[in-house]
Every structure is written in C-alpha cells, then in structure tokens.
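thought: fold this chain, then report.
action: predict
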Amino acid sequence: MGDPNDVYKALFELSPDAILIIEGDRFVDCNPAAVKTLRFPNKQALIDRYTPGEGDNVLGAHPAELSPTTQPDGRNSFEKADEMMQIAFERGSHRFEWEHVRADGEVFPVEVMLTVVDREPKHILHVVWREIAERKKLEQDLRLAQRLESVGRLAGGIAHDFNNILVVILSHAALLQRDLRAAGLPELAEQASEIRAASDRAAALTRQLLTFSRGHPTRPRPTDLVELLGSLGSMLSRLIGEDIDFVLDLPPGPVTVQADQSQIEQLVVNLAANARDAMPSGGALRVELSRHAHGKSDVLPRLESGSYAAIRVIDSGDGMTPEQLERAFDPFYTTKPPGSGSGLGLATVHSIAEQCGGGATIESALAEGTTVSVLLPLCSAEPVSTEPPPPASEALEGSETILLAEDEDAIRTLMCNALEQCGYHVLRAADGTAAMEIAQSYDSKIDLVITDVVMPRLSGPDFVQQLQEIRPGTKVIFMSGYAQDGTVTGATVDASAEILEKPFSPDVLLSSVRKLLDRT
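observation:
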C-alpha cells in the first residue's frame, strides 16, 4: 500500500465534489473541483481574487467571503459561518445547507459537510460541497405537488355534493325563467336569469378546483392548436379590452396535441385574463404558438426529450417579485386585492399542462412583464374536428326508454320530469344495485342508461360493466360531478359512452340524450 498522504492527495485532486481545507476560520486550500464549481479559470485566479500577494497555492479566505452577504434565512453569512464551524469543532462533524457565489456572481446552493481532522495544534476542517440546485428544484416541485394534492382531496370531498346542489339550483332556475317568460313576466324572468348566472359562476369555480385536483372529467383527443387558438382570437380581443395591443402569432398548421379542447381553451383564457389584470393602464399582449424541440438540459428537466407544442403568453405588465414568482402556481395564491381573484388561474394552468404530459414555467420581473410558457407533447394523429352544435330545442323530444340511476332524490326527480315532459319513458333507480335489478327484470328494450358515477352500494361504472354482460351495446351517459383521476374509472365501457358533467341544465341533459340516441 502506498503512502496514505499520496492516496489522500489523489482523492483530493480527483474528487468530483468540491473539497476545501479550513485552518482556524479560513480556507487555505481547495481541489480542482472547487475551482471549477466557483467558475474560476484556475486555482491561482481564485487565490488572487481573495488573498492577493500571499503567494502561490495559499488561499486565505473566510467562507463568508465566497458567499452572499446573507443566507436564505436572513442571517449574516460571516456570523452564521463562524457558528457552523464552531458546531463542527464541538461535534466532530456538521452537515448543513449553504449558499455560495461563483466568480460571475451567480449564487448557488450547496450541501456542506464539515469534518474535524485532528492535526494538533492546528484546528483543521475538511470541507465538502455538493451542489443541490436540482435537488432544491425537485423539492420545490414536490411541495407544490403535495399542496395541489391536498387541495385536490379537499375539492374531491366536496365537489360531488356541491355539484348536485348546483344541478337543483340551475335546473329550477331554468324552469322558473322559462315559465315566467311564458306568463308574460319578463322582470321576474330576469331575476331567475341572475340566479342561473350565479350558479354558472359557482360551477366555473368548481371546475377550476377539479381541474388541478384531476377530478374534472376529461375527453382527451387529437386537437389542432392552430385551429383552436385561431378560433379564440376574437374572444381574447374582447376579453382583454381595447387599451391592450393584442397579437396572435400562429405557425403554419396543424400543431396537434392530445388534449381536452375545453381545458386548453380554459388554460389560454386564464393566462390572457391574468395578463389583462397585470396591465391596468394598457400595454401589449402576445400569444405565440410554436413547435419546440425539448432537451433534458432545458427548463422543466422532468419532461422527456422530444417534440412539443409551445404556447407562450407574453405581457408588458407589472411583473412579479422573486417571492411572488416562487408561489405563482400555488392554489389560492393571488397578488390581487380581496374579492378580485380566486388564486386558481395559474394553478389550473399548471395542472392542465401536467395532465396533458407537459409542463408550465413563468419568467417575470418587476416592471418588465411576464412570460408564461406551456409545453404540450405533440402527437401524430389527425386532429378531430370540433363537435357540431347541439340540436335545436324542437328536436329534443323522443319516445325511447331510459333507465336513470341517480342517488340524489331531488336530481332524480328533476331529470325524470324533464325527460318525461319530452315524451321519454323513464325507469327510475336510486343506485346502481337497484338499476341492475331493473335491467334484469324489465322485459322490453332499454334504449339508454343515464347513471351517476359515484353512488352507494354499486358505482355507475361497475353497474354499466355488469349491464353490458346482459344487455350488450346499450348506450350510456355517465353523470359526474367528480372523477378521482379526471376520467370515468372502474370499468371498461364502450367508447360511445358520453360524460354529462354536473352541474347541467335540463336543456343540456335533453340535448345530450338526443345526440346519443341519434348516433348510429
């Protein structure tokens, strides 16, 4: 075995981690990895920066001299460094996180390991730095994911019941508005209209909650972003107002992604609304769409390398402070005054992007505007054209037999009344088990099943799975106010099944029924 000093020297010089030596309270030596980490061209340049005139290979810098003035906890770097070294001398070793400064001024986080080396009478510390910027970013992403998950669990717990309540309010308001207009009472009909409008706003808020909790039912399909954003252009112009210069920059199409069209519309509208609010005195807003070749070295390193669609929303507004930027995607965090925002806009954008297999980033500085970039994986499938408009009201009637499974009495009664008034024969069931018993005992054809997803005893998807064994090919509409992972789960159902998202009005119900019954 060779000289231990020679072995240590080799390890010291070849280590990929930065290693430094402290005598007393000063760095006196460092290895090449430390020089590289600090971005000096060579060791002598580092020595000349901090201890000029002391001679070659003699570094005499206090650890705080290679650090910003204060650490992230607000403490002075000199005072805290002395304390960290004192702890190491008392305990024999000490591990902690620290921020240092490179030669070009960039501040970077490291994990520091101080180890006491017995070399009497000298007080020597062996110092190892390991850069942790990527780890810190992953920790930040994990904390955000945990916050979203917590809110998602809360939203999922209340959304089903809340949406059931909204169905009753929205449906009765719609029926009341219709009857008041027919009775020649337009002023009272307008009051019923206000009830409907308030219900719609509550429903929109619930949808935002469920979007980032992944409890919102989705129908991903190949979607051409060029066509989608182009169709949104005029609406975005009206949304942001005449005092903002609006530019929509689209490439030659198509740019196709696998996504729920309504979610992408919501994403873009949220970003445009945020940009408008950041420019109260007017400004410029630019929405760009491009194809992006993403690599692991880019931002969002968790995304796989590949081809993405990049939606960038750029405004010339107030911008954000670093503290605001760090929390921008947090649910319920907002810089707007009370009553002016829910704090769900950017959280929803972040969740939609991730649900599509992509991600979102924000760049901003005070008085320099904000740029939000959303990356969505490109897909090679042919884009699906926009769905046709719903049928006119006079085409909503029918005579078919419908089996309805809904555990909420008020909703079940409302739906039965609406369907029967249009001529349908309705079989009523309070849950999936009762619906299955009806399906087994009913002698005639059942043309359509409408079932809630979440029900006691037997869920909607499980009921439909059993139903298809005895009545294969039966058409199905799932009603959902909350789906655990954003889709109807628990069974393999026919691809023709529709999802009716709660809350809905009687007209939406009848339109969905007629559309599915008429589908061949």
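thought: worth noting. The first strand starts at residue 18 and ends at 23.
final: tokens above.
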